[in-house]
Design goal:
Helix content: 25-40%
Largest sheet: 8 strands, parallel
Distance between the termini: 71 Å
CATH superfamily of the largest domain: Metal-dependent hydrolases
CATH architecture of the largest domain: Alpha-Beta Barrel
Oligomer: single chain
Number of helices: 20
Structural class: alpha/beta
Strand order of the largest sheet: 5-6-7-8-11-12-13-14
Radius of gyration: 28 Å
CATH class of the largest domain: Alpha Beta
Number of domains: 3
């Protein structure tokens, strides 16, 4: 194992895969733990972790992941008697065929999980955070292809590997990506097989997270629709592997989020204060001819997500389990548009005994939303009618969306966020880091300043006034993210009467605006042009953005 060339100051992570026979791997771990050898290794100064995992696909296999603060710490272990004692036990139990990979991550490691399953908040620093990306290892692809399900969702599963994912992240300035299993759900009629596929996937994700500390988190896959097996895997993933959350499909072969049979799973996840990343899957009943012509992702995924979320709301899941943190993908799907209709129909359904009364707003207020897909102005504006800015998270949908497209859209997305009064740093990183337990101060929202200015201008100075007003409006829109909207109008009957609806992200943004050089130039330059000025503060009914329109 050639390690002399490693940097003395760099953290080192070692991933070793052993194989044995006749249960030797498990006997080896048992003796390492009972004899105290493993405990003494973990006590060596500079040892961050020394952990064993048993691969679900190999009963005779063993994965060792150990991490060291630097080469000096690893050298201390190599010089200790425990090194020889462990080697002697491996020989005793005939373990061999090891594969060693050594990494020197450039970013600090994420600590092992707290008792509630979340990473230590001090380790999740500010930075770009991709809440929606997929890990697609060969083991998953092989399982799907073995059952002829690689086109089950109506489009091919893209190729993926960790190296290319990291290259994309570096190019996009993304510090951390959250990995989840894509569709289809790997259940093919055999619960044991599904459990094995999910176990292998989760262990591979945990190993990848360990190999690249701070770069990857993962939300574990569960072998639904078998609820008991899903709870078993959730416990293993959260309590043993250190999973950062759980990924749940909108439906698992007809079993929808919100269905009664999922109650035991939801109760357990609530007890863990789990983050749940949801993702649409093929509906249980679908017209195959139709989806062969129009991919599910183009519209049915949005309907499917909405269907699943409304089922959760109708069953009051998010209120009854208030510690769940559920992330809805693809800019809220159809939820912002469909929610008023859902709320309007509910009293009728309740009156006729078809539904039980629930607080729809209380349920929806607990949801988080990622921006994977088409994060247009309309999509962002619609989201802001149903949620608060701290619940909006960046998501790439890599590798289903190609890296060049994502990189090309990055700057325009940040500009759109700022145009809606959102802080791009919060949406692109801080909000997600806080969701996973980080203690990061973010901008306070919720107190927009919305003011109507009614201005009467002397007729002989009108054109001159409009020139000043157009300049200040244009500059404000271009340079001040906190100026959300300036909508200007002239009275048709009396053009000397000008009305400006001013919208600022908050009081701080308003105070900042009136201190700018361009506003002072406007204010001082038009002082003798204005006959009267009346300012009326208003209360906005929704959080949506007004178009950024300056005086023409």
């Amino acid at each position: 194992m050639a390690i002399a060339s490693q940097s003395i100051s760099a953290q080192i992570t070692i991933n070793i895969r052993y194989t044995g026979e006749k249960g030797g791997a498990r006997k080896y771990v048992r003796e390492m733990e009972r004899s105290g050898i493993a405990a003494r290794i973990r006590a060596v100064e500079g040892c961050i972790r020394y952990d064993y995992y048993f691969p679900a696909d190999d009963p005779e296999g063993l994965l060792l992941i150990d991490e060291w603060t630097d080469q000096e710490a690893l050298n201390r272990y190599h010089a200790s008697p425990m090194m020889q004692e462990a080697a002697a036990l491996r020989e005793k139990y005939k373990l061999g065929g090891r594969q060693v990979r050594i990494f020197n991550p450039a970013t600090p490691p994420v600590n092992r999980p707290r008792q509630d399953g979340k990473p230590q908040s001090s380790q999740l620093e500010a930075g770009r955070f991709d809440l929606h990306s997929h890990m697609i290892p060969e083991s998953y692809l092989e399982a799907v292809k073995a059952h002829g399900m690689e086109m089950d969702e109506g489009f091919p599963i893209p190729s993926w590997n960790a190296d290319e994912h990291l290259i994309f992240m570096d190019d996009a300035g993304i510090k951390t990506s959250v990995l989840t299993m894509p569709a289809p759900q790997p259940y093919f009629g055999d619960s044991a097989e599904s459990s094995a596929i999910c176990r292998k996937y989760n262990e591979e994700a945990a190993a990848l997270k360990a190999l690249y500390p701070g770069r990857f988190l993962f939300c574990a896959a569960l072998p639904l629709p078998d609820v008991d097996a899903a709870i078993t895997e959730a416990k293993y993933a959260l309590e043993v592997l250190g999973a950062d959350g759980i990924k749940l499909a909108s439906n698992s072969y007809g079993q929808y989020l919100g269905d009664e049979e999922l109650e035991p799973l939801m109760a357990y996840l609530n007890s863990r204060k789990a983050v749940i990343v949801t993702h649409p899957h093929k509906p249980a009943t679908v017209n195959d001819k139709l989806i062969s012509a129009i991919p599910l992702a183009s519209y049915e995924y949005l309907a499917e997500t909405t269907r699943a979320v409304f089922n959760m709301v109708a069953h009051n899941v998010l209120v009854r389990y208030p510690d769940l943190k559920v992330v809805v993908p693809h800019c809220g799907s159809f939820i912002p548009n469909a929610l008023p209709r859902f709320k309007g129909l509910m009293p009728v359904m309740v009156a006729q005994g078809y539904m039980k009364p629930v607080d729809v707003d209380a349920n929806v207020s607990r949801l988080y939303f990622d921006l994977a897909g088409a994060a247009t102005d309309d999509a962002i504006e619609s989201l802001l009618t149903i949620t608060e800015p701290t619940h909006i998270l960046y998501g790439s949908d890599y590798p289903y969306v190609a890296a060049p497209a994502l990189l090309g859209a990055r700057e325009s997305l940040e500009a759109r966020l700022a145009a809606h009064g959102l802080d791009p740093e919060d949406v692109m990183g801080n909000n997600a880091a806080m969701l996973f337990g980080a203690d990061i101060p973010v901008r306070k929202y919720g107190e927009r300043v919305v003011r109507l200015a009614q201005i009467e201008v002397y007729p002989e100075r009108l054109n001159e006034y409009l020139s000043f007003a157009k300049e200040v409006g244009t500059v404000s829109m271009a340079t001040e993210p906190g100026v959300v909207g300036l909508f200007s109008m002239q009275d048709k009957a009396d053009p000397c009467k000008v009305y400006i609806l001013e919208v600022y992200a908050d009081r701080e943004a308003y105070q900042s605006h009136i201190q700018t050089a361009h506003f002072k130039k406007y204010k001082e330059g038009t002082a003798d042009m204005v006959k009267s000025l009346q300012l009326t503060d208003t209360t906005p009914l929704v959080y949506a953005k007004l178009n950024k329109t300056a005086i023409k």
